[in-house]
């Protein structure tokens, strides 16, 4: 399978409060030629599974928190090479989704810098831990996420999509971060979610949404958004695989990304 290597045509900056810290932060996406890399001060990390330090309510690469939404946007529109310069130790909340990143990246444009030759895994990658499952196979970009809760609401939601840059931008990118109303105080006491509000997060109450959803199945769509970003740590384009996940979170996603990277041959030209 051959894919274009794409980078941004010019630098684009995103600013705002951090999703968890609430403090002013910024991220500038520069043209690159060495895969996806993040910089903070004098430190630089290639976006790959073995550089992930933490997966509690976000994906932390080196000293940089909450990279998953930007990673998802890069995967969604097919950017394979970029240098991301971060100020403040966290990516901006950017509306709690990836649509702001998608729109900014699309506005600056992209250019082809080479090709990727992908030999996907011959056997299905499957992981199961408790009630969490994740299956990856060579395919054509068919992805599904089953969001399941033990509480009455929302119960079971399934969202499936054939991923292309257009379908990603339209059906996945707008879906916001989710939080359960019953967990809000616990999250805040842990020093997380300081940048969350009714615009950047969808709050799930005991029997209904606390604030209006953008989609009836917005939680399932956002969990798929996160999954795309985490699995892109493997360097594998989203259209090279088919993925089905249930209840999967950042920890399981990153573990699967490591297995996918190990099972896939990627040659850069």
Low-confidence stretches: none
Order of helices and strands: EEEEEEEHEHEEEEEHEHEHEHE
Relative strand content: 35-45%
Tally of extended strands?
Answer: 17
Helix count, DSSP H or I runs of 4 or more residues: 6
CATH architecture assignment of the domain at 2-120: 2-Layer Sandwich
Describe this structure in words.
It is globular, with a radius of gyration of 17 Å. Helix 1 packs across helix 2 and helix 1 packs across helix 5. It contains six helices and 17 strands. With 269 residues, the protein is of the alpha+beta class.
Helix and strand arrangement:
Blueprint lengths: L1 E7 L3 E6 L6 E8 L4 E5 L2 E4 L5 E3 L5 E2 L6 H10 L4 E6 L11 H10 L1 E10 L5 E5 L2 E7 L3 E7 L7 E7 L2 H8 L4 E4 L3 H6 L11 E4 L13 H14 L9 E6 L3 H14 L1 E4 L1
Parallel strand pairs: 4-8, 12-16, 14-15
Antiparallel strand pairs: 1-9, 2-3, 3-8, 4-5, 6-7, 9-17, 10-11, 11-16, 12-13
